Amino acid sequence: RSMSDNELLRNPSPPPLTDEEKAKLKADYIGESLFSKKWVLNVIFKLFSLKEEEIYDTQLKLKQNFLESNSEQRLCNESNNDNLKELLGTFEDEICELWDISANSDVSTFLYENDSQAILMYVLDKTQSPRLLEICFGILGNMACVEKVALGMISDETFCDTLLEYLSLTDSLSLVELTRLLCVLMSHEVCLEKLIKSFETSSLEPHPVDQLVRILQNSLNVNIVMNIVEILDLIFDNSDKLMELHCKEILNCLLDVYYILNENSMQEPISNLLHILQSFTTTVSCVCELLKHDSLVVFLCSIFAHLLSGNNPRVKDQCLQSFYSVLSCLLSGNAKAVLSTINENYNLLVFLIDILNEKLTEYDTNEEAELNHIYLMVYLEPFHDIFYNLTICEEHFGNLFQVLKDKKILINNIIDLCTVIGMHSEDFAHFSENLATFNENLNL
User: Fold this and answer.
1) CA distance linking residue 181 with residue 145, whole number of Å
2) Where is this region: Disordered (predicted)?
3) Average pLDDT, the chain
4) What are phi and psi of 334, to 5 degrees?
């Protein structure tokens, strides 16, 4: 047949690759990926060289552009803006592509094996570009996702201490990636221990935890707030020393932090926030601070109760133990003030009654329930303490009494269930007797 015009104009197909050419291509692949070793090393070398003409756009004045177009995205330190630099567009594209592919575990391992950690830390120290700071922290964060790489990274004695120095930065996008890097490192147990030690032994002024609190108090960036809440939760869960030193500052900014997270429907960090409060119940000095802020904390508990009443069972299960620990601590320390606040936020009592009935019913009807007597006591104690204190307080808490009257049937069911469980537990027998007596004395 005759060839068509299109066929006559079409370029011929390239010849198939030889075995030798295929072997060369495969040798350039990073691990099982299709990313090129040569390309990655070229970008890393360009980064390390820090040649002005290859990296920075010397034709643009970053200061004006930075302040005008990113005023809502970045926290700017006016005294440091004169020397800020903009990245060259072509280089920014390359380094951002490297950032993207560093999420691949093979690429992360390859980067670490080729001294990229040292190069990135060198660039962080030398660059005057906020964008390059952000990208370098981002690449390090991706590398740290691979546990063996993270362990190698913290084997550098200066690495953790140097990261803490960068908490003095004021650029919000860089702080997003820096705090993410710290979160990723702290997700590995060995790295967590090393970072906690660095926090505890730091001689920096202000102290790194103070820097975290400062950022928390001044940032509206939800990603920064979310990361810092997670970091502080891990710090306080592993260091009583740091917790006692910084408990007061955290309590002072707690409500603002909650509102930022709640406005963005961030339930996971709210769980971390509640766990921080639970950690505060484990030392005497922190309990004293909690009691100074009892109205605030009970108000937060009432908000948490609303959240826990939602349809997210995973978050609910994570939060309940923290929630009850905090409330029990407050009731044991300053019951009258706590009752006064609960009276203003009476839905908290509704929540306590509903949850207690739910847990007791679950235990009573399911022989294989994971709940045991000790676990049930966590839910019973705050309710018992509220009942007891209502019988001895001279003040009249009208809203609380109305809730108890409205929930009378449920309360009687709770007392009956406690009596049944009390047949197998002296503690429950004692509580059921007390509840029955309180119920009678309150004349509900």
Assistant:
1) 9
2) 1-21
3) 84
4) -155, 70
Q: 417 phi and psi, to 5 degrees?
A: -65, -40
Do 157 and 119 form a contact (C-beta atoms < 8 A)? Answer: no
Domains and their CATH numbers in the chain: 28-62+86-204 (1.25.10.10), 303-443 (no CATH)
What is the average pLDDT across 68-72?
A: 44
SS3 157: coil
Beta-bridge mates of residue 56: 87
> By three-state DSSP, how is residue 36 classified?
strand
The model's pTM is 0.84
Of these ranges, 20-29, 245-254, 388-397, the one predicted with the greatest mean pLDDT is: 245-254
Residues 175 and 225: their CA atoms lie apart, in Å, by: 10
What DSSP assignment string belongs to 75-120? Answer: ---GGG-TT--PBPHHHHHHHHHHHHHTTSHHHHHHHHHTTHHHHH
Average pLDDT over residues 287-309: 78
**pLDDT (mean) for 279-307:** 83
For range 174-185, the mean pLDDT: 98
CA torsion sign, 177 to 178 to 181 to 182?
negative
Length of the chain in terms of residues written: 444
